[in-house]
Specification:
The structure is a single chain. The protein is an alpha/beta fold and about 290 residues long. It has a single domain, classed as Alpha-Beta Barrel (TIM Barrel). The protein is about 45% helix and about 15% strand. It is built from 13 helices and twelve strands. The strands form three sheets. An eight-stranded parallel β-sheet has the order 1-12-9-8-5-4-3-2. The protein has a two-stranded antiparallel sheet with strand order 6-7. It is globular and about 45 Å long.
């Protein structure tokens, strides 16, 4: 089986997909409804989202499984459906992707280890359960994302490495402080992240959410000060969120996002995709820039 990291080693710049949550809302997901349950209840609509990114030119798409641990699903009375829901998520994206790659999305559990909400063993078992479902459904890699705590990220990587045969990737979410530095909610810097998650077994690292591409440039540059060779992925928001007429919007147009692609590549990114606010149109413009380069 081809590997994403093998493609990167050949010198290819790869394009990933865009936002899922806002897209699900456009398809009819209601406030308080479980997004991951749509893999069972509305697989056709989930497929349409995945396929739209493939049609836009993405080399890889994620799965609708970001909140797919027993802790998140348990809030909806679905803790006993973890394997089924994650397997379905991967099967849908696998069908849409064809010969392209599928990233099994694994987000934070919502539990805080240092607060005693959960033990390390319990967190490990929750990730283990999820990643086994994603592998069974046909994912090519496990995409651990939006992490803010290094220990939670490490446990997720360990669970994926020890219980699947898939490539394991990990991104964290950073915000710019008033001092101009980047930190996660738990105080982790991009530099703090690098050695810990690579040592844990991550084969690709990076950042997602929290920033548009403009700010992601600084994050990638910081990663590259410590490691020149590890593949780096960026899933950037469509700019920084703004509150307009009672709702949160992401103002960056597809053209504005695409214009920054050469800058993020120069910083050292290997995979470029989108997070909050990005659409198939954003990914299509990114694809065009990458093709031209």
């Amino acid at each position: 089986m081809a590997k994403i990291t093998d493609e990167i080693k050949k010198g290819k710049i790869l394009v990933s997909d865009g936002a899922w949550g806002t897209f699900l809302q456009q398809k009819g997901l209601q406030v308080g409804e479980c997004p991951e349950q749509w893999n069972i209840k509305h697989p056709g609509k989930v497929f349409e989202i995945a396929k739209s990114y493939i049609d836009a030119g993405a080399d890889m798409i994620e799965t609708n499984s970001f909140g797919g641990t027993r802790f998140k699903l348990g809030k909806y009375g679905l803790a006993d459906k973890v394997f089924e829901i994650n397997k379905a998520a991967a099967e849908i994206s696998r069908k849409a992707a064809g010969e392209k790659f599928v990233l099994g999305s694994v987000g934070p559990t919502g539990k805080i280890l240092m607060m005693g909400d959960v033990t390390a063993d319990e967190m490990y078992e929750a990730f283990k359960e999820q990643v086994k479902g994603l592998e069974a459904g046909g994912a090519d890699a496990i995409m651990i994302e939006t992490m803010t705590d290094l220990e939670e990220a490490r446990l997720a990587i360990q669970a994926a490495k020890e219980n699947t045969g898939l490539e394991v990737f990990c991104t964290m979410t950073f915000e710019k402080t008033v001092d101009g530095e980047f930190r996660s909610m738990m105080g982790v810097s991009p530099a703090d992240m690098v050695n810990t998650i690579i040592t844990a077994g991550a084969e690709l690292i990076g950042a997602n959410c929290g920033n548009g591409i403009a700010n992601m440039v600084g994050i990638v540059e910081e990663i590259r000060t410590l490691n020149k060779h590890i593949p780096v992925l960026v899933h950037a928001n469509a700019g920084m969120p703004e509150y307009r007429d009672g709702e949160t919007v992401f103002p960056e147009t597809p053209e504005e996002m695409a214009a920054l692609v050469p800058k993020i590549l120069a910083a050292g990114a290997n995979v470029i995709g989108g997070c909050c606010g990005t659409t198939p149109e954003h990914i299509q413009k990114v694809r065009e820039i990458v093709n031209n380069l």
